[in-house]
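Handoff note, outgoing to incoming analyst
You'll be picking up this chain. Sequence as last confirmed:
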Amino acid sequence: MELPAVDLKAIILVHWLLTVWGCMNYMLPASYAWGNFSVLALGIWAIVQRDSVDAIVMFLTGLLLTILTDIIHISVFYPPNNYLTDAIGSIGMAIFSLLLKPVSCYLVYRMYRERGGDYTFNIGVTRAGRDRSAYEPIDQQDTAPQWPAKTAQQPY
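Most recent structure output, in case you need it:
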C-alpha cells in the first residue's frame, strides 16, 4: 500500500496548529512550546531550501527528538484528576500531536529519500568486515622513483 504524497507545508501546518492548541493552557511548560516551535522553524527551512538534504535531515531529527521530549513533558506535567477538566482540550491536542509525529517522521523520511538522501535503515544479518572488492593498495609502487634518494651525510 503506497501512501499518498503529502506536502511538507501540510505537515508543518498541522503540527503548528496542534502545538498552538497544546500550549493554550497553563499545564505544559514553556519548554514544550520552545522545542516544538524550534523544530517547526527547521521545517520552514526545509521548505525554503527544497534541494537541501541537510535541512530535511535536521527537521527529521528534530521531529524524532520532540517525540521523546513530548512524552516526557506530557507524562511529567499531566494534570491531576481534579484539574483534568480545565486542561482536557490542551493536553488532548498535545497527545494527538504526539501520536501524529511518527507518521510525520515517516513522510519526512520519504521526502529525504526523494531529495537524494542515502541513509537506509537496514535491519538484518550483516557481516563484519569491509568490502575489499575496490581496494587499491597505495603503499606498493610499481615504478622507480624519479629522483635518486639522497643519503644523509655523516657528521665528521
